[in-house]
Amino acid sequence: MASPYGNVDRNKEGERERLYNPYQDLQVPIHTLYRLPTSPEFLFQEESVAQRRSWGENLTYYTGCGYLSGAISGAGKGLFDGIKAREEGDTLKLRVNRILNASGHTGRKFGNRLGVIGLLYAGIESSIVAVRDTDDVFNSVLAGLGTGALFKAASGPRSAAVAGAIGGLAVGVAVAGKQALKRY
């Protein structure tokens, strides 16, 4: 029920009670009060020209995405390992503890590995972009090659070469898939 004093409602006892409306005296529609810009805002005009994240943003993004996806997939694998490792006569509390321990251990291990891979990839890609002064598919594939080789460098030259080839192919497939999705 409307009144000149604002909205009126009845409380539990049936008495009339006025509800507070902070916008009642404003003579403008509420949606025009908070007109927020829809375009990105930049401090300097040069920032609006660049269509690429900075090296620090890339580093944070790839490392964070790598760690998160590795932790989630590792926790899933640990869940199945914990379920498979059950023994006859285990109590429910012991089974849950085994699953949580396996999920946490495998999730941390996978998360750390993929986080380091993301860190290496972002650093190598940003370095290649800075040296070549262009941003194209070739940079991404080279960064994948370098990341795979550097990640497995301690395992020997053969393992590093195989991991580099796998990294380059994986990035090449990812970039080609992204381009195909953009086109269609």
From TrEMBL:
The keyword Repeat does not apply. Keywords: Membrane, Transmembrane, Transmembrane helix. It comes from the Eukaryota. It is found in: Membrane. It is a multi-pass membrane protein. One of its GO terms (molecular function) is protein transmembrane transporter activity. InterPro entries: Tim23-like. GO terms for biological process: protein import into mitochondrial matrix. One of its GO terms (cellular component) is TIM23 mitochondrial import inner membrane translocase complex. This is Mitochondrial import inner membrane translocase subunit TIM23. It comes from Nymphaea colorata (pocket water lily). The lineage of its organism: Eukaryota, Viridiplantae, Streptophyta, Embryophyta, Tracheophyta.
